[in-house]
């Protein structure tokens, strides 16, 4: 259960460790990018980058390669480009109504 919870933490802040090797358990996630929505908090969350996709700053600095990170989407993180959870405190909304998704033209 602990390995599962830690392995599914979007930001990678939760880590479980192999008891014998003392090495972190790293989930094998396919390369993908998703949008996190938080219905419990009623707000829109970060981008979830999975599968060791490189992240670079605007000036070309490459950040440590991780199997999962969350990137700020609200613009208010004090740890940009990474999410620090501020989206929940400010009630960030991306304009998408999850209960009524936008209809495509012609439908």
From TrEMBL:
Cross-referenced Pfam families: zf-CDGSH
Q: Which InterPro entries match?
A: FeS-contain_CDGSH-typ (IPR018967), MitoNEET_CISD (IPR042216)
Q: Which UniProt keywords apply?
A: 2Fe-2S, Iron, Iron-sulfur, Metal-binding
Q: Where is the Iron-binding zinc finger CDGSH type domain?
A: 56-93
Question: Does Iron-sulfur count among this protein's keywords?
Answer: yes
Q: What is this protein called?
A: CDGSH iron-sulfur domain-containing protein
Q: Which organism does this sequence originate in?
A: Salininema proteolyticum
């Amino acid at each position: 259960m602990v390995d599962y919870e830690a392995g599914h933490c979007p930001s990678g802040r939760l880590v479980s460790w192999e008891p014998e090797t003392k090495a972190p358990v790293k989930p094998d996630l396919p390369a993908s990018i998703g949008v996190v929505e938080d219905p419990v908090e009623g707000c829109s969350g970060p981008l979830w980058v999975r599968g060791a996709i490189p992240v670079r700053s605007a000036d070309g600095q490459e950040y440590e390669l991780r199997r999962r990170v969350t990137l700020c989407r609200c613009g208010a993180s004090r740890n940009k480009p990474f999410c620090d959870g501020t989206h929940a405190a400010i009630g960030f909304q991306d304009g998408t109504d999850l209960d009524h998704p936008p209809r495509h033209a012609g439908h």
